[in-house]
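FORM 7B: Structural annotation worksheet

SECTION A. Query
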Amino acid sequence: MAAKKAEQALVDQWREMLALHARTQCELDRALHQHGLCGSDFEVLDVLSGDCDAFRVQEISERVHLSQSALSRLIARLEKDGLVERGMCAEDRRGVRVTLTDKGRALHGEVLPVQRAVLTKMLTG
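SECTION B. Predicted structure
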């Protein structure tokens, strides 16, 4: 009986985490929509705004938890909007590197406080 209660508590905790994630993602999407972005768009811009000049698509995929194909479509859209640029990887000609443009860096700086405010509201309150 105790094992079954512990198991149910674990399942309940998991479902609470999923619900919190879903609510937070919806709130982020709503707040970022005013700036022409969704939460996944912001996550890619945020990864690219780090110390590294460029990231391979696979490296971005590992950080933003999107499939390779979904990320490729997202990057294509960001590139079309002038927020990122794609180029060949010097070390591996099959690889593609993605960098922020000046426009992408400016937009990231503009929406960073919005994203952080949503996270603060949703995760600390």
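SECTION C. Observations
The mean pLDDT is 92. The domain at 2-124 is CATH 1.10.10.10 (Arc Repressor Mutant, subunit A).

SECTION D. Sign-off
Analyst initials: ____
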